[in-house]
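Morning run. Coffee first, then this:
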Amino acid sequence: MIPDSIELIIVTPEKQLLRESVVEVVLPGAEGELGILPGHAPLMTELGIGELTYRGASGNASGVLAVIRGFVEVLGDRVTILAETAERAAEINLARAEAAKARAEKRLASGDPNIDMDRAFVALQSALIRIQIARKYRGAPVETR
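And here it is:
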């Protein structure tokens, strides 16, 4: 019998961010978006950079987080996410994210052979997803360029 809900656990190096019973989780895998429902086949995969959404089991409560790299373990009744970084939209410091975006863009545009381009690209992706989620879910103005 398939369970009605699954337990979602999100852990970062600093803290356990979330432990909640949910009916659906959508997360960024390393190879694309992954949807998980109760009774999902077991798997272990890499967490990408992007938006994680979930829908709570009690009522219509749902949530959104910006997640940045890590690992995901899916079992039939539980999803455990070990993320390098995970932030709720309300916790994102938009000014800090925009400053990080500007720094990453400057590094990428510099052409300096001593710059770790992969690291700069990940920093840019991380800043962009944080900005996108903060603006989308907190009603901040969306940049149109």
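Residues 89 and 138 are 7 Å apart (CA to CA). Good start to the day.
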